[in-house]
Amino acid sequence: MSTTKNPSTELRQLRVLADPLRVRILRALAHEPRTTAQVAELLGENDTRLYHHVRALERVNLIRLVETRPKRGTTEKYYQAVPPEVNKRSSRRGAADLAPLLNALLDMARYDVLVHLPSAGEEGAESTGILALRLVLHGNAQNRAAMRARVAKLFQQLAQKESKRKIKPDDEAYALTAILSPTGESKPRTK
Length: 191
Description:
The protein is 48% helix and 9% strand. By secondary structure, the protein is mainly α. It has one domain: Winged helix-like DNA-binding domain superfamily/Winged helix DNA-binding domain (Arc Repressor Mutant, subunit A, Orthogonal Bundle), CATH 1.10.10. It is globular.
């Protein structure tokens, strides 16, 4: 996928992702192709309710039709998620434009963690593979730009390696979410 994207297309994608059910559908299609009926069963939803949402995700190129199979006089359509990109122009947009994407991203991360949190009496987070970290950095705009570039490069390297991996049936999917954002905390005192 190209790193330059039409701003109107990107805005349509952000609007589509504002619906929590669409985020759940996108998540269900992230790692393997599925039919709308399979996604409905996985999510515990009525498949007729999902067709509208699947079409909306397909219209803005967040999912794509990857295969069709004939089945008992009908055709099954298998969809898979297309990884969304946020290009550099997005960082200059207002909060109203980025809010749907950030909400979707945070909802997906929250869901991933909550589903896999150990219950009382079970082993701790080490057994689930969950790693939660937060680091507050201080610096000027130049420091922030350098950190942003390093994190983006790391994600790009990881994504390239992952795209070349052959996924095995017993492999588990793990998500890595990073947000570099001002905190609103006061600046450190100078001595």
